[in-house]
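Handout, section B. The chain below has 89 residues.
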Amino acid sequence: MSLAYCDKFFEMAQCLYGPEELQLIGVTAVYIASKVEEVFVPTVKIFSKSTNYSSSVRRICLVERDMMNVLAFRLHPLTLVNWADWYTK
């Protein structure tokens, strides 16, 4: 799911971020995907720690807001897994 969020974000974003912020965008996408998919969501501090604190909690939350606005809160994109599940049924 996080890869789908990153792909859609890069497709729709108006050059908001440069290549030096790819890790920040990636960890934010994983954080959003964990909120959608997981039952027990890790805190944003854990995601900040996973980047060795190069992405602060505040920056992750700000990028999360930007990603949600760019994605228009559509967090269930069709993926190959969805198609395969539909096809097998």
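Note. The radius of gyration is 14 Å. Compare this with the example in section A.
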